Amino acid sequence: MTFQSINEGARKLSEHRAAIVDALNKSIEIFSTNKEETFEEVMTNGIRPIADAVGLDRVVFYKLLDIEGVKRLGQVYRWDKAEDGLVSLEEELKDLHGIPVYDNWMSIALKGDCIRLKESDYTEDAAVFLRKYGIKSILILPIFTHGEFWGVINFQDHTNDRYFDEDCFDLLYSAARIFSNAIIRVGAKQNTEDAIKALKHREEMESAMNRAAVMFLSRNKKTFEASMTAGVREIADAFRLDRLSIWRNLNKPDAVHASQIFRWDRESGGTTVPTEGL
C-alpha cells in the first residue's frame, strides 16, 4: 500500500465522518426548531439527512405493547426512502408475538444490547423473516425511557450486504435517541390531550344531565312534549345521540311484552310519534 493510497483512504474516512456529523446536526436542528410542521413532517425531514448519510432505505419503530397481559413488540411508525416519508404500517408487523427470531431479538434488546446483521451471515430463521421484506442489512437498537424499555428502532439497508461501520453505528445510536424522544414526547402530549378531552367531555355530559333534570322537574308553562324535547336534546347533544326511545313493559298472560311510548329523533327535530308497529 502506497503512502498516497493511505492518504486517500484517510481523506475519504474524514469526509465520511464529516458527512455523518453534518447529517446529525441537520437532524437535531430540524427536531429542535420546528414550529408549525406536523409530527409526520418533522419525522420525515429529520430522518432524511441521517438516511442519506448512512444509506438507509427504511427506519421502523417497534414499541413494547401489553396485549391481553402478554408483552410483545408491535410496529408503530415506518419511514420509507422510496416514498420519502412516514408510510402506513405493515399489518402483519403490528404484533410480532410468535415470530421466533423477533422474540429472540427482543430478549437481547431488553438487556440493552444491539443486533447488527448482514444478509450473508443471516441464520436460517433470520433469513426467512428479513428476506421477506427485502432487508440486506439491519441494525436494531433498543430504546429506554426513564430506565424502562420502550421498544426498538430498526435501521434497514435494502441494497447492500454489509455491517454498519463504527461511524454509522455512532450516528445511528445518536439518531435513535433523537427519533425516540420525538415519538415519546408526542405520545405523552397525546395522552395528556386525550385525558383533558375526556375530562372536559365528562364535565359537559354531567352539566347536560343537570340541565335536563331541571327541565324535566321544573313546573313551567311548557307542554310535556316541549319539556321532553328540550331536555332530551341536552342529553342527546352531550352523548352524540341521534335517537332516544322509551319503552314500557306490559305483563300479559303469555309473556312480558314491551311497547314504545316515547321517541325523540334528531332528524325529525325532536319528540315524534312512536314508530308504527312498535
Structure notes:
The chain is α+β, with helices and mostly antiparallel strands and 278 residues long. It has 2 domains: 190 residues, 2-Layer Sandwich (Beta-Lactamase); 37 residues, no CATH class. The chain is built from 6 helices and 9 strands; from the N terminus they run H-H-E-E-E-H-E-H-E-E-H-H-E-E-E. It has a 6-stranded antiparallel β-sheet, sandwiched between helices. Strand 2 and strand 3 form a beta hairpin. Helix 1 runs parallel beside helix 5. The longest helix has 52 residues.
Query: What is the succession of H and E elements?
Result: HHEEEHEHEEHHEEE
Average of pLDDT: 81
CATH homologous superfamily title of the largest domain: GAF domain
Strand content: 15-25%
CATH class of the largest domain: Alpha Beta
Our count of helices gives 6
- What would you call the structural class? alpha+beta
Termini Cα gap: 95 Å
Helix content: 40-55%
Alpha carbon gyration radius = 30 Å
Largest sheet: 6 strands, antiparallel
The CATH architecture name of the largest domain reads 2-Layer Sandwich
